[in-house]
Prior knowledge:
Distance between the termini: 38 Å
Helix content: over 70%
Shape: globular
Radius of gyration: 17 Å
Largest sheet: none
Number of helices: 11
Structural class: mainly alpha
Number of strands: 0
Amino acid sequence: AEKIVLRALKEKVSPLEIREIVYQCAPYVGIGRVQETMEGVNDAFKKAHIPLPLPTATTVTDKNRREAGEQMVMKQILSQVAKDEYDLRVNDLYDFCFGDFYTRSGLSLKDRELVVFGAIAALGGCEAQLRSHIGANLREGTTKAQLVDALRVMLPYLGFPRTLNAMNQVTQLTKDSK
């Protein structure tokens, strides 16, 4: 992570944007992986003489994270969720994923969706979620070419099977949206 972060800093990616890119992955790859990655990120920041801790990007509290998360997700999802699945599919999704992460400052919604696309593509085997976030990327103005470019950048880290699986989803959704 350290080399990648130092290169990103050289390319004028702000420390806050770097941290938010990593944090945005937490709901998708797990907090353990994010914590491990942040150790390398913070080492790079120290090497680059960036004072830590960085300013907070949290925009919600425990009291309003549900409402903020609900505002980030389409309300129609609620009517389609079985009662015994509600806590996981709605409460946890709204509070944690959308309330705690999507509401943070430091990255635009468009950039957050591109990060999530990359994180889910890296996991592999999550085609339904990948399709959902490809759609979100397209709605936010990310083009097919930009999604393909992101996959080309990620290819050495993902390998061909995950990259091609993600590319197939991009192709299918952009074909369907024409």
